[in-house]
């Protein structure tokens, strides 16, 4: 497993990270979820990403319980705060940032979180209030670094213009062959401020694994086949995205790679990306994801991908 620094921080992560959205503490049974986390660790995954809202805290509890069997300095814990955890418990006010951090620490069963991320930008709370609260958490040793997810370049810049506050180490944008929007401006802002990107949905909700085919019903047990999870796929479940994935299958075959390897290696081709977050509902899925670490795509393969996807969108 290849390692990368997270921006200009001293955090070092595996190129492949394990996420827990829609899976652990929710739709994957506990025993299988625990097996996935253990297998990820065995395969060299060192970054485990979560959010307090995933399973209303259940995902954090599961990660804490399973990873508690391993040395604390052998893995990184990342979680997020913003979305509602109960009546009136939402946003990035100082009170909420402090309270939700303490609750996440309790569920994880640890004394510090490596990366504490603002899940979205809070337009109802002054930015200075949020950044001051994060700075206090760093000073208290409760978090090592702060990050954010899906902030605009203007919001990122505003945070760095505030004096005397902690500096963001990471950004967590959605990014894949089929969703290249961060290339337009977010990556540039991150490069300017020394921020690493830990990208989510690099496999486009499973579409870039090649499991879906144009004109065919989604395979049984897949996210698109379930009424409960189909909505989370958004436009990825549409015919246009699946048709592009069909074309990318030919590109992968020509490069001697699986679809998963192609998609993850593509996302990692840019040094501004520190890691790609993958999900797993079965332990064996992780082996193929991990095999993408260290894969380099040649110029012909990159050009063939661009021919399918066009310019960033």
Description:
This protein is an alpha/beta fold. The protein has one domain (3-210, 266-295): NADP-dependent oxidoreductase domain (TIM Barrel). Helices cover 37% and strands 14% of the residues. It is built from eleven helices and ten strands. It has helices spanning 30-42, 58-67, 94-108, 127-139, 153-161, 186-193, 227-230, 239-255, 259-267, 284-290, 299-309, and strands at residues 3-5, 12-14, 16-18, 47-49, 76-81, 113-118, 143-148, 168-171, 196-199, 273-278. The protein has an eight-stranded parallel beta sheet, covered by helices on one side. It is globular and about 55 Å long.
List the SSEs and their pairings:
Elements lengths: L2 E3 L6 E3 L1 E3 L11 H13 L4 E3 L8 H10 L8 E6 L12 H15 L4 E6 L8 H13 L3 E6 L4 H9 L6 E4 L14 H8 L2 E4 L27 H4 L8 H17 L3 H9 L5 E6 L5 H7 L8 H11 L4
Parallel strand pairs: 3-10, 4-5, 5-6, 6-7, 7-8, 8-9, 9-10
Antiparallel strand pairs: 1-2
Highest CATH level, the class: Alpha Beta
CATH topology: TIM Barrel
Can you tell me the CATH superfamily?
A: NADP-dependent oxidoreductase domain
Order of helices and strands: EEEHEHEHEHEHEHEHHHEHH
Q: Please count the helical segments.
A: 11
Can you summarize the main beta sheet?
A: 8 strands, parallel
Concise synopsis of the structure shown:
Helix content is 37%, strand content 14%.
Keywords:
globular, single chain, 313 residues, TIM Barrel, alpha/beta
